[in-house]
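User: I'm curious whether this sequence folds into something compact or stays loose and floppy. Could you predict its structure so I can see for myself?
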Amino acid sequence: MRRPLSTLLLAVLPLAAAADADRQLADSLLAVTQSRVPEAFSAVEQLTRQHPNFRLAHLVRGDLLLARARPLETLGNAATRSGELEQLRDEARQRVRAATDPLPQDKVPVYLLNLDGGYRHALVVDANRSRLYVYANRAGLPVRVADFYVTIGKAGPGKQREGDNRTPIGVYSVSSFKSPRELSDFYGSGAFTLDYPNEWDTRQGRNGHGIWIHGSPSSTYSRTPRASEGCVVLANDDLTRLGQYIEIGKTPVFIAETIEWVAHDELADRRNELSGALDRWRQDWESRDTARLLAHYHPSFRAGTQDLRAFGASKQKVNAGKTWIKVGLDRVSLMLYPERPDFALVSFVQDYRSSNLSDRTEKRQFWRRDNGRWTIIHETSL
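Assistant: Here's the prediction. I'll summarize afterward.
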């Protein structure tokens, strides 16, 4: 038996952080649940005037017109499961879910262990909720400041190869912005490019390119939850709002199938554990004891073309020619990988000084936790 539309949309509440269209649509649906059909119609009428290409809003408006003659049974008021109608229903469910299933106020995404002060904001995408959350970095603590409805790949999350229509899962960086003048109308108000595939994707054999966060065609206000070729897609006005939080090269993007939420004290515990492992690695490097240093590396470690054996031989040779080593780490960021709680991306600026060489290098390391112990499995000098 189909549930009445009012039951399906019960308790829809507008979110302060949501975009205007989300609030207006939620206001309309809330009025429906409270049998305030004229008020609901007025709200959605205003929405369709402001966004004449908003297909979901037009669907709700059509339902409200029909409601004057007979009760509504479902969104779209039809038993058919046509592809387009089902996709619009999915969009409605996701937008309603954002209002009726609020995020835990006392928890944050586990991935944001520690962001260097140079990162003012981080973006976290929850593919299953069709939502992008913006977190401000306030003295190293993540604070949610905005969120947006998004579209992901037609085949869902978990990109592996070119053309699979999937959105990658992982940690990426916004590498550039392409203005509408550089693009076709398909990308709407512009595109923020991501650095997919990153070095870990490449090592895992994942390929493909052109994974962007971009806008929507002028003919469509928003696309349904799974409609892109792998990109993260927003309504054009939402992309403009999102842009105020993005700094090229300084905004990390976490894409998860489903976000893992943790309390602040648990976040601190995980941060301290990984931070402690990083500091012990630094100290053992300073000791010039190559065996102690290599104990911090995973057996499958790679750095460029070097495996652990070649890397160890190189370190042994270098350390033998030094009387002292000092290693400082600045701008440290610790980020857990989505869907992999025992995998982390660590970035920092390494200030290396020794008896015969001084060097300052930006590094990215991937750490893996096995049996309660963190070790480095991949390293890149930028």
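Summary: The longest strand covers residues 340-354. The chain has a mean pLDDT of 89.
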